[in-house]
Write a structure and sequence with these properties.
Blueprint lengths: L15 E4 L2 E12 L2 E9 L7 E7 L5 H15 L9 E5 L6 E5 L3 E3 H11 L5 H19 L21 E4 L4 E3 L19 E2 L8 H4 L6 H17 L17 H6 L4 E2 L7 H9 L3 H7 L5 H10 L11 H15 L5 H14 L27
Parallel strand pairs: 10-11
Antiparallel strand pairs: 1-2, 2-3, 3-4, 4-6, 5-6, 7-8, 8-9
Helix pairs in contact: 2-11, 3-5, 3-10, 5-9, 9-10
């Protein structure tokens, strides 16, 4: 399971930040993404202990284009209001190092869930996987169809749908986070420079890796890769059955050394694009042969190398996943998801194959049994 975040910077836990009239004290650095770093912080004020938030701070830079790119996420988030997307709380755009204050979703990232499932050598259940993917698809539909203040479609594409950006909260909520790599048609938006490829390349659609203009269907390809990994414990582009290095031809060969990833990756954008283009139903079937046929068909369509053959929208993929759940496990919901996560946390061995992606403590809600069942 790829994980390519840069090492955290050496911020002090006692560091304080002020946005408007609100003061925040850093708890720990969560890591760096793109042109900024992420810091877990707590609000400060009179009385009880403050709530936790995520501060995103621009790296020290003198380049105005970095500042514009960093603040673009806040501009987009202001227009989004969906329970499955982490909320923007505040922004300090004029600070020397601009700050964005985001909702903190306490829980487990899907990256950590996959790491624990790999240790256990048992993938997540088909209902769990379909439920999580359907919730993410619903959030993506809201993002893809958002409009600006004048009612113009933004044609927003998340461009970084990956396990690190999907959070499972302590109340069973599924949240999509981090729009730092998002693409949109917003008037005045900063344009990605040169041949820079943004986001986690490991889960990018082939057209994103070829530096073509993406649309909503690129996010569905990424979600398909995440869904396969949940169902099989295998990252499809580097599965044991698909590890031969593909040759590069045509435009990929031409651009192989000119495409520049914003974040380090285990393979170049051109090689990953070549691997993604080789995906076909036969390849998916070899890896996901034990997955229920109806769910495997959803995966195969989402992972089609030609975007014209994928679902037309995130809503269509969401509806297909919900139809599978209604047919196979109609009562699956928050209670069942939390029960499966608790079983994963309690039973996951402390050592073995698979690597934990974080040393952060597991919230108590994932360890204790529910007071009553529904």
């Amino acid at each position: 399971m790829p994980s390519q975040s840069r090492p955290p910077s050496a911020a002090q836990a006692s560091q304080c930040f002020t946005v408007g009239s609100q003061r925040y004290r850093a708890v720990r650095v969560l890591g760096t993404l793109g042109v900024g770093e992420r810091i877990l912080a707590r609000t400060e004020g009179l009385g009880a202990e403050g709530e936790l938030v995520v501060l995103k701070r621009l790296h020290a830079t003198q380049r105005p284009e970095d500042r514009r790119r960093f603040l673009e996420e806040a501009r987009l988030l202001r227009m989004l209001d969906h329970p499955g997307i982490a909320r923007l709380l505040a922004v300090a755009p004029r600070a020397q190092q601009p700050l964005i204050v985001m909702e903190y979703v306490e829980g487990l990232s899907l990256e950590r869930v996959l790491g624990r499932a790999a240790k256990r050598r048992r993938p997540m259940s088909a209902p769990f996987s379909a439920y999580v993917a359907a919730q993410v698809a619903d959030a993506l539909h809201a993002a893809h169809t958002v409009t600006d203040e004048a009612g113009r479609p933004l044609e927003l594409v998340h461009r970084d749908v990956s396990p690190r950006n999907i959070q499972l909260g302590t109340h069973g909520e599924v949240k999509l986070t981090d729009l730092g790599a998002a693409f949109s048609q917003r008037l005045g938006r900063p344009v990605t420079p040169g041949r820079l490829v943004k986001g986690d390349l490991s889960y990018a659609a082939p057209e994103v890796l070829r530096h073509e203009t993406p649309d909503a269907r690129a996010d569905l390809f990424s979600l398909g890769l995440v869904l396969v990994e949940l169902l099989t414990n295998q990252y499809l582009l580097d599965s044991p059955l698909e590890r031969t290095s593909p040759g590069l031809a045509g435009p990929l060969a031409k651009w192989a050394h000119r495409l520049k990833p914003e974040e380090p990756s285990w393979a170049s954008p051109a090689e990953l694009a070549a691997r993604a283009e080789r995906l076909c139903p036969e390849v998916v079937a070899r890896v996901a042969g034990q997955v229920p046929a109806a769910l495997r068909a959803i995966v195969e369509r989402a992972l089609h190398s030609h975007r014209e053959e994928r679902y037309l929208s995130a809503a269509a993929m969401r509806d297909a996943l919900r139809a599978f759940l209604e047919e196979q496990c109609p009562r699956y919901g928050v209670s069942e998801l939390m029960a499966e996560l608790r079983a994963l946390v309690v039973r996951s061995p402390r050592s073995g194959t698979g690597v934990e992606s974080s040393r952060e403590p597991v919230p108590a809600e994932f360890r204790r049994k529910p007071a009553h069942s529904h």
